[in-house]
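Re: the request from the purification team.
They wanted to know what the chain is likely to look like in 3D before they choose a buffer screen. I agreed to run a prediction and write the result into the notebook, where they can find it.
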Amino acid sequence: MRLHSLARTTGIERTLVGRIARDLPAANRSDTWLYTHDPDVEDARDYLGIITPKSAVGVDGVPLAQGVQHLDYLADGDVIAVDPSGFVRTLYRRSSPHNFILMTEQCNSYCLMCSQPPKAIDDSNRIAEHFRLVDLIDPQTEELGITGGEPTLFQRNFLRLVDHCETRLPRTSLHVLTNGRMFFYRRYAAELGSIAHHDLVLGIPLYSDVDSEHDYIVQARGAFEETVLGLQNLDRSGVAVEIRVVLHRLSIQRLPQLATFIARNFPWSCHVALMGLEMFGLVHKNLAELWIDPADYQDALSAAVEVLAGAGMHVSIYNHQLCVLEPRLWPLARKSISDWKNVYLKECDGCSVIAQCGGFFQSGTKIHSAHIRAIRAD
C-alpha cells in the first residue's frame, strides 16, 4: 500500500488538508475532498476540492487534483493533504489501527539504524497541518501515534499538540516515539505531566547499560545520561513510558545486562519492547556493523526476557518471525508492523501460524534470516 501519489492540480495555491467523501452529498463540504471516478461530476461546489484518478475538466472555483494513482483505497473519513505541486499524502485512514503524525524530520540523534533519516531543515511550519489533522480525525479512533525525527524538538508546540489531542480526541490513546533526551529538563517533563492526558505513553529507546555504547549507537555524546535522567523525570511527572530496544549486532552484545539495568532502574516502565531491525534508511549504510541473523541471538534474547519477566515487567517482541524465534518466546511476539508495510515471503506459503506471525517490513524482503520457513501443522 502506498501512502502518497502525484496528481495534476488546478486551483491549489496552498496545501489543502481535508476528509475524504466518496459520494455526493456530504456534510461539512468545506472540510471535504470529494473522491470520484466521474470526471464530469456535478454539484461539487463548496467542496474543499475534487480528487480523481481520471482526467477531468473540473468545476469552476473548486480545486482539482486529477490523475492520482494508487489511492483507490481511500474511504469516507480518511484524511489527505494535497500540495500545490501535486504531491498527495494520506495522513489518516479511519479503518487502520496504525495512524501516526510525522511531527518533524529533524532529530538531535543520528542512530546507526534509523529508518527515517533526519534532515537538517526547518519544518516548524508543519505544526498547523498537525493541528488541522487532529481536528479532522474521527474521535472514535482508538490509538494515534506521534513520531519523527524527534517530536520534542518542537518544544512547546509538541506540548500544545498533546494537549490538543486530549481535548479533541478524548477516547484516543496517544503513543509518542521520542528519544527522551529533552526530558532531561525536569520542567519540560513536568509540563507534559501537567497536561494529564488520559492515555499517553512515550516509547523511548535504550540500547546499552554502558553510556559510551548507547551514545555510539545513537551518534550523540551525552545521550545516555540525558535519556536516563529523562526517564526518571517522566516517572516523577506521572508520564507513562515504555522502553524500546532495537536488536542488532551492537545492542545484542550486552542485552542481558541491559535487561538487568532496566529492571533495576526503571521497574515502573509500563512496557519493554525488544524490536527487530527495519531494513530501511541508515541501516543499509551501516549494515556490516549492524546485521546479525536473529536466529543467532536467541540465547541472549531469551536471557533478557527471563530477567525482565522475572522482575514482573511487561515484555513484548516486535518485528520478528515465529519460525526464527524460540517457541518459548512465541507468546511474547506481536504483530507490530504497520499494515501498509507488512508483507510475507513466498517461503511463508502454507505456514500454519502465519495468522499469528509478525511477518516482514516491505523493506526487509531481501535481507532477512536464513532460517525462514513455513511451519506445518503436523
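For the purification team: The first helix runs from residue 126 to 136.
Please add any questions underneath this entry.
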